[in-house]
């Protein structure tokens, strides 16, 4: 196990790559889906509270940053005209299901079940961004997702209490960020494979 302070390296990397993503909104045509980003902000903040309640220490930093980065993206997106992706019926349906899962997790008294509902909520919120990234990869930038992977891997390395409520969100964030990066780069990978 690594020293707990190593999570601050993840925080710096995550913040740097979040600002790189925000920069791409203003310079490169990145257009975040605000349905996804709003729930990605909300669920980790509550997840942070629940993980602390479950006894998480510095490992909760990755979960907190998973909410703080989206908060910054939302704020800066509102300053750039036409910066965010057009919201469609599919996005709204995913958003409604995410909020329902989120409400269920707030109302559940069991900490592990609450965390599971928070993960489901966050995962449903990711669907519109995964869909958009798959169809229009040029509308996304991998920087913030790469930061999420690094930050949460470092957070996993300092966990002392391997309880589901403590580690599950970190593992989920690593996996969902890998899925989004794959959605962004799948066309380039197929092109590269066909060139061989």
Précis, in short:
The chain has 196 residues and is mainly α. The protein is built from 7 helices and no strands. Helix 1 runs antiparallel to helix 6 (143-156), helix 2 (34-53) runs parallel beside helix 4 (89-107) and helix 4 packs antiparallel against helix 5 (111-135).
Tell me the number of strands: 0
Poorly predicted regions are none
Number of helices: 7
- Residue share in β-strands: under 5%
The coarse silhouette is globular
Spatial gap, N to C terminus? 41 Å
- Number of individual domains: 1
Characterize the main sheet.
none
Helix content: over 70%
Mean pLDDT: 83
Helices and strands, in N-to-C order?
HHHHHHH
How large is the radius of gyration? 16 Å
What structural class do you assign from the helix and strand content?
Answer: mainly alpha
């Amino acid at each position: 196990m690594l020293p707990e302070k190593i999570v601050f390296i993840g925080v710096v990397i995550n913040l740097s790559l979040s600002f790189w993503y925000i920069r791409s909104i203003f310079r490169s045509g990145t257009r975040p889906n605000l349905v996804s980003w709003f729930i990605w902000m909300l669920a980790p903040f509550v997840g942070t509270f629940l993980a602390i309640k479950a006894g998480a220490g510095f490992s909760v930093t990755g979960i907190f940053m998973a909410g703080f980065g989206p908060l910054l993206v939302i704020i800066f997106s509102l300053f750039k005209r036409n910066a965010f992706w057009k919201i469609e019926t599919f996005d709204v349906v995913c958003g409604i299901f995410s909020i329902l899962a989120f409400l269920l997790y707030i109302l559940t008294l069991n900490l592990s079940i609450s965390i599971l509902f928070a993960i489901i909520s966050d995962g449903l919120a990711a669907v519109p961004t995964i869909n958009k990234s798959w169809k229009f990869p040029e509308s996304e930038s991998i920087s913030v997702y790469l930061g999420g992977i690094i930050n949460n891997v470092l957070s996993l390395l300092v966990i002392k209490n391997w309880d589901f409520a403590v580690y599950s969100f970190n593992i989920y964030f690593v996996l969902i960020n890998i899925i989004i990066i794959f959605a962004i780069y799948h066309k380039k990978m197929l092109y590269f494979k066909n060139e061989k």
